[in-house]
Amino acid sequence: FFFFFFFRLEFCFCLMEFQTPCKLLGLYGGGEVSAALQPLLLDKADQTSPFSLCMVPTEAHLMYKRKERSYQNYRPDGILKVSWFAKHRERVLSALFVLFDWSVFTDRPSFEAALFTHVEHIRTATRSRSPRLVLVLFSKPQLKKLLDPSIAKTEGEAWPVGYLSAEDCASVIRKRLELDAKVVSVLPSSSAAELAEHCRKLMRVGLEQADVCIKEEARLVKKHKNEINKSTQPFLFARHRFKIGWYYEMVREGALALKYYLQSYTHLQQCDMYAARELQAVGRLLSERILHIHLKWDRNLRGAFEFFDAHLQWHRQFNPEQQHPTSPNALLQATNKLLYLTSLADQYEQFADHLSCHPVAYPWTPASSPGYFYHAASAVVRERHACRLSVSELAQGILTNYSAPPHTAPLYVGHPHRVIADDPTEETVYNFVHIWNELQDLPFDAAVLQLLDKALDRYTTLMPCPRLSACLACDMAAIYAQQEEWVLAAAAIEKPFAMCISERWPLLSGDVFRMAADCCVKFNDAAGWLVRMLYRIANPPISSLACFHTLLAYLRNEDTSACPADMLLPPMLTAAVDIPMATNHPFVSVRCQFSRPAARIFHTVHFQLWLSTLCPAPLPFDALTIHFSDPALTIQHSPEHPPC
Fold first, then answer.
1. pLDDT tens for residues 487-507?
2. How far, in Å, are 54, 364, 459, 629, 638 from residue 632 at the CA level?
3. pLDDT tens sequence across 507-557
4. Model-level pTM?
5. What are phi and psi of 480, to 5 degrees?
6. CA–CA dist 363, 347 (Å, integer)
7. Among candidate residues 523, 522, 548, the one with its CA nearest the CA of residue 535
8. 347 CB contacts (<8 Å, ≥6 apart)?
């Protein structure tokens, strides 16, 4: 069963912020030649560290100035600006390919004068950010002949006039412009294969120069460390540590990135002056980056588990208490509650996705398997659905004749939308309606079924856990039954049904058999369906089939007089059950009872056992042994003193 579930919550943060930091390289000049060279530069490029290559159409796009600020007594309105992520994805270049056509010059002095003026002009325009320059010289006529097969090939100059070779030209220009080695090159025009290979080398040089620029940017941010007071400005310290970690993650310096992310996360926990919603959003962003490094780069599952557990403990302190719908703050509390539960469910699911993709073998346990976290996410989704139902009347009263007021996008990560209105309650109402409409479009049953299906798959393949798998399949079948999808419910319950028979789980069998019986009733062929299922499972003897026919009658609340006493299942596990002894004794009886009405995953169930005798004379017992289907659960007790 496959259900596709996607939820994008614009209240807290954009999904782009969760992606791995990406270097931005630019391609400037050359006109149509730059458009033709772009796919050659990207061909077979190293994708170890994500990057993007954009065309810089005009000089205005290069003039992106840095703001100089004094941090003494500075307190921003938020921790992380949304625009900071946008500008580093779209505007701030770490390396710039500068294309210059030398074919229009007939002598060396005029060529060098024009080239040096052009480069200095670009340096002036980019002085604030100072991206690393890679100078690429080309002859437009020769490249057009090489890239366009329809143009006749003719001999031409392979490098600018006045130089001994292309290497001589690059060496002279590099020294005159005081550029690093390998950042000046002349594109070959002899063959397409040579040009493609040269472009791949150029791309490697550009990525190396981008790394140098980003590390320099991180050092510039570090210089502000002494200007920030850690105790009175923990929000600024958290912001700057995050930026440094972001830069180091761009260049795949995993150890340094993790160091600064953890420092930022630690100081974030001291920022009690900001709203809980913003702290949740920034904390989730930091946890996503830290877990990405632990799992994708370091392959450190133990460290990832420890951090995720600690993060959830801190995250749960923001869980708002549900207030009565008539209270003054009910609207704000309902909005925060829905946002909190959505964030918690997403974090459980994302962590499970990370663990599912982990290629390294790990000693999985039921509490560390990805299936555990998928199941936890499904439980949070159910809680969120219950929260929505509890405030449905309040929502319907607000949505009646509601029209959205003018609003602006949030400026900081985790901030709500700003409503342009005089009444401050308009903003609260708008944010509640926004999250309500987002969740209204989300099919609740499909979301839970997808998470349960993932959990069942992980518990079946990655870490076999038959009993937990049976519980999950029962939950899925129950949802299908509520939707009256009886074919899917029967398919979901078939495997737990088989496992209950083969593994002899009488206590878990109650829910499984009842669900199977409901499916049988809907099919109008109860006996035939059970017979076919049993034959597919293990082809049991006819006597076993007769017992299950009788059990089915019991589950239908029909006459069960022909059903043996030991085949009857109690309606709830809390009912006391007589246990047949291996050797019948006329004076001894055994009864058991469980503390919960049903066996469910992650719940502790206490088992009580009573041994009673009806004989007037004392009965000597050497030992009491209780055998379970799992040998690890077998109990054996020997009395320390003779019986009275």
1. 788 788 777 766 665 665 554
2. 62, 19, 20, 9, 18
3. 455 566 667 666 766 665 555 655 555 554 444 444 444 445 545 554 555
4. 0.76
5. -60, -40
6. 22
7. 548
8. 284, 287, 312, 315
